[in-house]
Amino acid sequence: MSPVVSLAFPFFGLILLGFFSGKIAKVPEEGMRWMNFFIVYIAVPALFFKLMSVTPFEQFGNWRFILATTLCTYIAFVISFGIGILASKGNVREAAIQGNLGAYSNVGYMGPGLTLAALGPQSAVPTVLIFVFDSVLLFTLLPFLMALGGSEKLRFFATAKLVVIRIVTHPFNVASAAGVLASYLQWSPPAAIDTILTLLKNAAAPVALFALGVTVALRPLTKVPFEMPLHLFVKLIFHPILVFTMLSLLGGFERVWILTATLMSALPPALNVFVMARQYNVWVDKASSGVLVGTLASIGTVTGLLWLIAENRLPVW
């Protein structure tokens, strides 16, 4: 277990360090804004650009992989959405947030650093593909369901326009597209700019994980409703099993791609679940608790998966 613990501990250790700092320091939440801006608009986009720009262009066209992994995320969403419908007695808006809790992995903050550390640079392309297309799926589903469940009349084209703008202008997606273009043109930035991008890339994971811990610490842990363990089972157990099984049965994928997808789907709920709940003022406290409990529970589940990967216990067909 020692190599696995050595791999997993820095990631969860940074989250816990941020969590305890948030509990002890009593810094107002407003103080996190510039750190979050740095993560979302500067550091992680630099990471994605660097990963994509040095990847052979032909690797980006694996549509079988994209469709399979996105379908698995959609299935996880539908299951948690159904649980949410039952738990909320038909409240579509609450169920939409619950669907995200069961399907939206922390692929932006935790994903790249963890997959690259565990599986090497060969995991870069599947990591970015999963981030981009899972985000497109969930960024598309949520606004439509929120509009559908609201009292106001559903304005299809206005909602569709908003969804497209948010997807196209998201800094992670913009950086990924720029990286793909750089790969296609085989272009490398000047040395001075490349050094800045490298420094930002190296800062992305530690800053994001620390900020995740602080943000979770600042959110109240309310009473855990009965449906939350069901959502976390879908997120932490069912989702990765589904991804691993589907990719293995379909066949034709490199082992590192299957393991990358499995690890990405096993990550805890993304902080964006709480952000979206707060944006729509729906299921806010419970979403916060779900992210907190899911992150803590994933210390055991993700570490266990890393052990299975390290010991070659997953029978990739």
Care to describe what's here?
- This protein has 317 residues and is mostly helical.
- Helices cover 77% and strands 0% of the residues.
- The protein has 13 helices and no strands.
- Helix 1 runs antiparallel to helix 13 (284-310), helix 2 (33-53) runs parallel beside helix 8 and helix 6 packs parallel to helix 11.
- The protein is globular, with a radius of gyration of 19 Å.
- It starts with a helix and ends in a 7-residue tail after the last helix.
- The mean pLDDT is 89.
Features:
single chain; 317 residues; mainly alpha
**Class computed from helices, strands and strand pairing:** mainly alpha
The global form is: globular
Give the total of beta strands: 0
**CA radius of gyration:** 19 Å
Overall pLDDT score: 89
Counting DSSP H or I runs of 4 or more residues, the number of helices is 13
Approximately how much beta-strand content do the residues carry? under 5%
Low-confidence stretches: none
Helices and strands in order:
Blueprint: H1 2-25, H2 33-53, H3 63-87, H4 92-103, H5 111-119, H6 124-149, H7 156-169, H8 171-185, H9 191-217, H10 227-250, H11 255-265, H12 272-280, H13 284-310
